[in-house]
Amino acid sequence: MAIGVNATDGVPNAMLEAMTMGALPVQSDTESTAEWITHGANGLLVEPGNPEQIAEAIRRGLQDDKLVEEAAELNRQQLLRRLDTSVVKPQVIEMYRRIAAEARRADQ
User: What is the pLDDT of residues 49-103, one digit of tens each?
Assistant: First the structure.
């Protein structure tokens, strides 16, 4: 389990690193983390100012082996899809090609 609770944050590197290691993320419910975590599926989202909710998420992570195992697999698949360079590199190249083509059209 990896616990990252703070009031504001972008996509926390510690959360992504924990996900790559198969840890269950217990993370602040922010817009950025919600792009990566579906509460109860591949992690647990908590309100940073709610210690009871945080404690309950920790208890759940310690007791629910099925959640932890399924979350690890979902996170592995998501990380491969979203961060693997063999997947992302062609997408980035195509994005730059589109931008360059649009710039050329705008200059004409």
Answer: 999 999 999 999 999 999 999 999 999 999 999 988 898 899 999 999 999 999 9
Distances (CA, A) of 80 to 29, 57, 99, 105: 23, 26, 25, 35
Share of the chain above pLDDT 70, in %: 99
The number of CA neighbours under 13 Å toward the Cβ of 27 is 30
Residue type, 74: L
Question: 89 and 41 in contact (C-beta within 8 Å)?
Answer: no
Q: Is there a contact between 44 and 19 (Cβ–Cβ < 8 Å)?
A: no
Distance linking the first and last C-alpha atoms of the chain: 55
* 56: CB partners within 8 A, 6+ apart: none
The pTM is what? Answer: 0.79
Residue whose pair of structure tokens reads 């059209």 in the numeric block: 105
